[in-house]
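From the shared-data thread, chain only:
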Amino acid sequence: MSKAKDQPSPLVVAAAALGDELRGFADLANEAKRESLNTERSMSRATRSLSESVQFHARIEGKLKALVAEIESARKLQQESVEMLVGVAHEVERRAKSRDALLARFEQLGSQARQTSTLALESTTLQKEGAAHEQLLERLGALERQIDEIVAEARAIAQAAASEDWPEIGRQADGLGQQMQAAKNKLVLAHQGVARRAPS
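Structure, as tokens:
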């Protein structure tokens, strides 16, 4: 723990100083009250106590003002801290909405990618089963267009994630976009192969 944290706060110091003065004042009052006031010495001590009480009173007033000032400083610090935390709460809420919106888009994108993968497998099955070239070409062309849309959305999500400072979501979207682009490249080769085999 740092020395600064070990030091008592100004509020504690001010309260302690006022407490010391009040205890001294109370002791002085008790001593004055115990005087018998039946001798010159006793009368003199009581008079001296009364004189000292004026000085005590002035010091107590000063210490009291200092404590009030520290209490006001503490109140301001508390208010500033509350306002800061309210700002943090608003920022957390804003960031959560930003993250949730991006994750929702990414989840939808993942669903589209899975559907496209299923359609690609079905196209492969149709090709193995000897489906008509026209049917295969139409299906492959539709798949390429769907993948283009997915790749474009993946890039858009990655850009939005970068601008909103969500690097992990950006990396995931970029990775999915690259996977889908690689899938499209294979699909284009398949499309070209089917087109070459199609009857003229």
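The helical segments are 3-6, 10-34, 40-128, 133-163, 167-197.
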